[in-house]
Amino acid sequence: MDWLADAARSLNEATGITLTYLYDGYDGGRFLEGIVNTVLLSLACLSASLVIGVVGAFARGAKSAAVRWLVGGYTELFRNTPPLVQMYFLFFGVGALLPTVQNRWGFEEPMLGAWAWAIISLSFFAGAFNVEIFRSGIEAVPRATVEAAESLGYTRLQIYLHVVLPLAFRVCLPALNNNLVNLVKTTTLAYAIAVPELLYMSNQIWSDSLNVPEMMVTLLLLYVGLVGVLVWAMHRWEQAMRIPGFGRSAA
Amino acid sequence: MSAGRTGEVVVSLRDVRKSFGDVEVLRGVSFDVRRGEVVCVIGPSGSGKSTLIRCVNGLAKVNGGSITVMGREVNDPRLDVLALRRSVGMVFQQYNLFPHRTALQNVMMAQVTVLKRPKAEAERVARALIAKVKLEGKEDAYPGELSGGQQQRVAIARSLAMNPEVMLFDEVTAALDPETVKEVLNTIRQLAADGMTCILVTHEMGFAREVADHIYFTDRGVIVEHGPPASFFAEASDPRTREFLGQIL
Question: What are the transmembrane regions (chain A) (predicted)?
Fold first, then answer.
């Protein structure tokens, strides 16, 4: 990658465009760390929010009114409040109420750090939408198909896992796609509680190297790329799950 | 009940009542089905035929009376409804196959998930049943790639894989083309010949006459008349039966 560093350096000398992360080892390291952390944060929140969606949508159909009410309350709360407010509420509000633990230098510190709260708040945020998205998919599964499974002696959980969920997934993938794309973009909010993700690390770089416009363009293009990878993966998944004679291919 | 019906009673209905809101769909229906018998329920649309057999496996809850299957009271709140459904096979008008699974998987799934059969055994059973309903070569086809008649035969194989004590057929040919009706009726005919206990709700009068041991005619939630096919079609005396048969035959 030396040629890239050389090219960036010459570009800087010729035009004044400063892409330090390509030739300055320190900036390069911070930049890479930011990318890796954004990817890790995204993957953690994607998986956790999917689990919340699947479990929450199942619980929405529970026999117990208390369980249904609880899930309904959760989705309303996290759908109808700004994600940044949620993150602050959890990090500064709930986080401060939790007991502290001693770190290895003997100092008291909060039980959960910024990373943990970022993952929790972003997963709760996207999970609330996923519950609703899965619910829409579940409602599209014909009652008759469920009755067929009931007639075969399936339990409610078995029907959910083997019949309803696989069909609901296929119906709601486009909506799910949208929400997951949104989630990856929303990981930038973790900046606000000092999680060293891409935006946070870029801020450090532009503060030191005074290359604000360059970093803005870089960030924009990088997120296009990151989200592009997700969209491509989701598209592949959608195609792999396509069934002959069902949904789109039936046309 | 006519004379000559012997054998163990598999399904028994006593004064079964069922309402949807203010509408009483079943107003006291009673009959017995014995092992190996084929019973056809016929009657005009809206007479409660489908509701009747949906009550037998607990898909619909009755409001009064009693239904027993192999001595189990379907109306009992402590009933193990899953165990009941394992012993009662049900085939629907719209087949209701699992569209995301192949024909073979459709016949295998419940064996593995519900009966906990090992996969290899479930597959052996499924392949044999698919051959029995004459669909060899279609094992890997998805329901969307099969004709209505083929799907319905897969649905029958799917139910048979659970080794039911009795099979319920809810107007299983009503959604099919005339040509494919025959395929499905042949499958049911073979089942009947094998000694499977069957309750059929049907509009296929010719088939009912040929295959049924006993025919029940329902209208407005009650059994108006019943008898073995020969006497039923020849001697039905109630004006409602005569009118229905006159329209349909």
Answer: 39-62, 83-102, 114-134, 215-234
CA-CA distance, B12 to B32, in Å (whole number)? 4
Q: Which of A150, A162, A245 sits opposite B142 (nearest CB)?
A: A245
Report the residue from A144, A166, A244 with minimal CB separation from B142: A244
Distance separating alpha carbons of residues B163 and B242, to the nearest angstrom? 38
CATH at B241: 3.40.50.300
**Residues A184-203: tens digit of each pLDDT:** 999 999 999 999 999 999 99
A46 touches chain B (CB under 8 A): no
The single-letter code of the amino acid at A39 is V
| Domain contains B207 | yes
CATH homologous superfamily of A2-250 equals MetI-like (1.10.3720.10)
Total domains in chain B come to 1
Tell me if B37 is assigned to some domain. Answer: yes
Residue B139 in domain = no
Answer whether B114 sits within 8 Å of A153, measured CB to CB.
yes
Q: Where are the domains of chain A?
A: 2-250
Chain-chain contact of B90 with A148 (C-beta, under 8 angstroms): yes
User: Are A152 and B143 an interchain contact pair (Cβ–Cβ within 8 Å)?
Assistant: no
Give the per-residue pLDDT at A96.
86
Q: Is A239 left (phi over 0), alpha (psi -120 to 50) or beta?
A: alpha
Position B64 pLDDT exceeds 80: yes
Range of the domain at B20: 9-95+166-248
Give alpha helix (H) positions in B27-102: 49-56, 81-87
ipTM: 0.91
Q: Which pLDDT band holds residue A248 (cuts at 50, 70, 90)?
A: low
